[in-house]
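Researcher: Here's a chain I'd like modeled. Treat it as a single chain, no partners, no ligands.
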Amino acid sequence: MLDHYRTQLTRIPFGVAVAVSLLVLFMPASGVPSAPPGTDKVVHFALFAALAATGRIAGFPTAKLLPALVGYAAASEVLQGLLPIGRSCELADGLVDVAGVAVGWAAAALARKVSGASSR
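Model: Modeled as a single isolated chain. Structure tokens:
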């Protein structure tokens, strides 16, 4: 019974990461703070690394998690270009998103291995 609650609790950080990503990726350009060049790439990388890591920790199957996050990366870029929010679709952002997914997933896998937890 406690395992059920433990599993549910591990999904909270993933839900928070999803909510933050939606807020950041779809905020109108007027709400995006000015920052040095390249900062947006760091933000994209960190968002998608967090999504992958928290999704892996939550126990979502890799075969579903990774394609879903890559699809989300592509869809979010297309939507940024299509929605009337003053944002643009950039291939480089999408590639950085996918790199973040790979690094976040690998970091969570390594953390599991180091901690002795079973991999999924």
